[in-house]
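Researcher: Before we compare anything, I want clean individual predictions. No alignment, no superposition, just each chain on its own. First chain goes here; please echo the sequence and then give the structure tokens.
Model: Echoing the first chain and its structure:
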Amino acid sequence: MATAYYHPSLVPQLTDPPLGSKHFTSFALGGVSCTCAAGAVAQDRSTRGHVLVTMKAIRKATGDTAGGTSVQQVDDALASIVGADNLSTGYWHWPRVAKKIAEEGRGFLWSVRYRKIFQYMKHQQHGSPQKDLICGSDRERGFGDQVPIGGGPAGEADWHAIFAHMWLASGESVVIRGKTLTGPANERGLVVFDSLCDGRRGSVAEGPVVYPQSLVLDVVADSLLFGKTYGALTDDARVEEGQTPDDVPTRKRTLRYGAQPIHRRFKTVGPSWFRSSPRRDPNDPRENVVRWLPAGAPLELYQRTDQGGRMHGSRRWFGNRTGDLWIHANRLEAH
């Protein structure tokens, strides 16, 4: 049976043009809210449209008023707004993320350097129709009219947040919110929702776009994170043919590593690490570290396994709802 996806809506970030302006610009809230806009797409996708949150609501919940937000801030803000932690934020090896998108129907709220994406669009065939463009900026150091990509001063590393939705095989087509997207001729492609792709000019892409896998790998290599990439995995958005998004539970627990279901609240005992797997490699104990946690950090955990790597004489580990983040029992106490 074929598998389909729930497709979220694009959330544009440049929504606050100055009074009297004929063009959208990086103005007020919108210009530094790419992570909040991408987070709104992630929330739409994780709940299959059941719980929608605006970019502005997320921005307000982060407490940020000036300089932009991180993926972890958006993760925390969404959890506080909707009462459910639908994101797993950390520093992930890209092959792991790519596999989860392909095989588990997951999405990825992704912080990237934008320059490779911009350079690729500049090398696209001159005169390509807007539907074939991939970039939300047609200016090397900025979007809109004045503020550099990422909202920082000129010379910064143009960090931007996008949302990776699904892979398309070479030549495969899908219709998302009325736009037909097709995989590249000789490699697979990644469907991306970019908050800057609002079609405000004919030289700026509109709607979801497709990055060739070769471009994706260039972006990963350009991230300067030593083989890792920073972002948050979302829930599975797949639905079976003949089903509707309403037929599929939106907060299902995914048990991994021989885990048993639990639901308990903890706090960390001293500074700790979340890991992508409980199977800690004694020869490389930092290999699957994905997020640092300060002492006393509150955690809501949903599964327990006794099949993890041995630490402090115990193999017991606790994981989040989707089984992406794990912490050893020795680092936890009841909250």
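Researcher: Okay. Second chain, same rules.
Model: Second chain and its structure:
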Amino acid sequence: MKKSTIGVLVIVIIIIIIGVYYFTSHSSNLSPATPGQATTTAETASSSDQAVAPVDKTKTVIGQSVEKRDITAYHYGNGSAELLFIGGVHGGYEWNTTLVAYKLMDYLKANPDAIPQNVKITVIPVLNPDGLNKVVGTTGQFTAGDVSASEETVIDGRFNANNVDLNRNFDCHWQPTGTWQKMTVSGGSQAFSEPESQALKNYAETNKPVAVVVWYSAAGGVFASQCDNGILPGTKELMSSYSAASGYKAYDSFDFYQTTGDLADWLAKQNIPAINVILSAHNDTEWTKNLAGIQALLTHYAK
């Protein structure tokens, strides 16, 4: 055999050996990944490129009730001056206060231009969802026709699932028992013992709204908040604006019976202007009056 032929054969054999070695050493990378096996570079890149769901800035779940129902705050407008409106503190007993809040939400959706550029409106339609659910069967939109016909159930719906009156559970002159009309009610084991009042506390302390309106029923009037240090100047302005526009009479204090652990009074303790707007009846939103009051506040706080 010629030397040239032998040389060619040697080269071919070497190429074959190198090819077999390369195929053998890399074949494991071509097989499917088994469970628990690390992802490949391509898989990792694909995972990192997946879209992240956008944050919903139109609402915030600020906490949950005793029975684990969400307490939700809904936001309108993008200004730095936050006006906070709260309904349903007394749940199903004052179901019309939640309907007022839902009417406000519908109004703001339909009239976004009504909100001044420097203002943000937050609405918490129901602070006591367990009490509301007990009476109307939901914590979402409802009608007067959904309200329980049982007076006992409606009264029971005033309290949360721990049988605590939430408007006796805030840290201004808090007591373990409080008064509602001629009845003794529970103020909780301590101030902010209830998850609902704790949720509102955390939200208010974090966001520091410039003004707060809390709806109740049924005495008919706008009541200023205070806790030991008199009425804040901002509260006076808030009360006067809402009262003059709505036609509700303004009161510097609630003197029908003694209240302890009041939500708005605790806000005053935090130097946050707040008023209690108490509707005239339990079965009417008095929307025309309240809308006029709300519009007056939007004008007052606009820059």
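Researcher: What stands out in the second chain?
Model: The two ends are 103 Å apart (CA to CA). Additionally, The mean pLDDT is 88.
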